[in-house]
Amino acid sequence: MEIRRLAPADGPAYRALRLRALREHPDAFTSSYEEDVQQPLQVSFARLASPLYAFWGAVQGDELYGMVGLEHEQRAKNRHKGSVIGMYVTPEVTGQGVGRALLQALVVHARGAGIASLVLTVTEGNAHAWRLYAGAGFRSFGIEPDAIRVEGQPFAKNHMHLDLSQAP
Ligand SMILES: CC(C)(COP(=O)(O)OP(=O)(O)OC[C@H]1O[C@@H](n2cnc3c(N)ncnc32)[C@H](O)[C@@H]1OP(=O)(O)O)[C@@H](O)C(=O)NCCC(=O)NCCS
């Protein structure tokens, strides 16, 4: 399995995997399948080309099996920060270290880009994702109740932080 940066040419595969993630795990993401499926492919191309984002994929042959994104803050007071977004690994290859490898690629890039602080949110009860992030050094700094609602059901979100200014 190769971990590499995604480019605009990966737009169709990125969009398909993102929609699968949103459809299969509605409580794991803030975006929803129902809203995102309305967006044209052009939105995916634009996201992959944007300097505000970087995405990595887990690729084997022509297939995309996993992905993660980094959203880099831009304003003077918060451009030391980045957000980890859209982490997803297909069930065919979970539990084999693909998520960890994607996160590692993102962290290496973030350090190189001078980012000092990474943040993310993980839905309370998503033990698999929580362990992935805790294992990479992320620490919880609070739980937001009623952070998202899926078909009217409230879910809390755990906010996690990784200090990149410390030595790895
Ligand atoms: C969460 C997710 C990204 C993990 O991907 P993955 O490739 O299976 O993760 P890894 O194999 O790299 O495992 C990383 C850590 O997760 C934990 N883990 C792995 N498999 C697990 C399992 N079946 N149950 C619980 N924890 C598990 C382990 O702590 C592992 O570290 P270890 O090997 O040192 O014990 C993947 O399951 C997924 O996409 N889930 C659905 C969408 C989602 O929840 N995304 C996160 C949104 S915040």
Structure description:
The chain is an alpha+beta fold and 168 residues long. The chain has a single domain (2-163), classed as Aminopeptidase, CATH 3.40.630. It is 30% helix and 36% strand. The chain has helices at residues 11-24, 33-36, 41-49, 98-112, 127-135; strands spanning 2-5, 53-60, 63-72, 81-89, 117-123, 139-150, 153-163. Strand 4, helix 4 (98-112) and strand 5 (117-123) form a beta-alpha-beta unit. Helix 1 crosses helix 3 (41-49). The protein starts with a strand and ends in a 5-residue tail after the last strand. 29% of the residues are buried. The model has no long low-confidence stretch (mean pLDDT 96). The structure holds coenzyme A (COA). Coenzyme A (COA) is lined by residues 21, 25, 28, 87-89, 94-100, 122, 126-129, 131-132, 135.
Could you provide a short overview of the structure?
The protein has helices at residues 11-24, 33-36, 41-49, 98-112, 127-135, and strands at 2-5, 53-60, 63-72, 81-89, 117-123, 139-150, 153-163.
